[in-house]
């Protein structure tokens, strides 16, 4: 829980900017892999291009979200996720399983059993991290509402 509290903040713009920066670095890493692959191996698997497009899409989404005000971001939290803890956990588990599966898919020698194993591990760790992240967000949301009511 402490780690989740460190990653979250009352200032959601800061959290979104960190996520934006992270997505940009992942996109650049994929571009570097593609570049080095073209120079040294002459053949690049299509998954690298797909990964670059996906990470660029995530970067654009995080850029869009980071341009919103802190109040708008907390309003989105309140409307979408505050009363939907299981859905938030499920979303977290899907994103975590993608983080685990993407490198496994790139290792083309992975069998269906390994794919299932990585998927199960990703889903389980995503659910565990999702509840911690949800509790941290809820903690900071209550703190944000307290500060907001004191300011009014």
Summarize the structure in words.
- The structure is a single chain.
- The protein is an all-alpha fold.
- Helix content is 85%, strand content 0%.
- The chain is built from 6 helices and no strands.
- Helix 2 (12-40) runs antiparallel to helix 3 and helix 5 packs across helix 6 (112-151).
- The radius of gyration is 18 Å and the shape is globular.
- The relative contact order is 0.14.
- The mean pLDDT is 84.
List keywords for this structure.
6 helices, 85% helix
Report a brief summary of the structure:
The protein has about 150 residues and is mostly helical.
Order of helices and strands: HHHHHH
Main β-sheet description: none
User: Could you estimate the helical fraction of the residues in percent?
Assistant: over 70%
- The amount of beta strand, in percent, is under 5%
What is the overall silhouette? globular
Gyration radius (Cα, Å) is: 18 Å
**How many strand units?**
0
What gap, in angstroms, lies between the N and C termini?
31 Å
Going by helix content, strand content and strand pairing, the class is: mainly alpha
How many individual helices?
Answer: 6
Give the averaged pLDDT, no decimals. Answer: 84
- Poorly predicted parts: none
Topology diagram in text:
Layout: H1 2-7, H2 12-40, H3 46-66, H4 70-80, H5 85-106, H6 112-151
Helix pairs in contact: 2-3, 5-6
């Amino acid at each position: 829980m402490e780690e989740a509290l460190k990653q979250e903040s009352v200032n959601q713009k800061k959290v979104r900017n960190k996520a934006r920066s992270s997505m940009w670095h992942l996109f650049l890493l994929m571009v570097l892999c593609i570049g080095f692959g073209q120079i040294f191996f002459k053949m690049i698997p299509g998954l690298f291009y797909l990964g670059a497009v996906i990470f660029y899409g995530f970067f654009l989404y995080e850029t869009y979200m980071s341009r919103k005000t802190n109040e708008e971001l907390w309003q989105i939290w309140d409307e979408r996720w505050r009363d939907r803890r299981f859905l938030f956990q499920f979303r977290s588990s899907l994103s975590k399983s993608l983080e685990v599966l993407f490198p496994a898919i790139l290792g083309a020698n992975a069998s269906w059993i390994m794919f299932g194993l990585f998927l199960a591990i990703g889903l389980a760790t995503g659910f565990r991290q999702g509840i911690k992240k949800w509790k941290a967000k809820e903690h900071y949301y209550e703190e944000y509402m307290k500060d907001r009511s004191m300011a009014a």
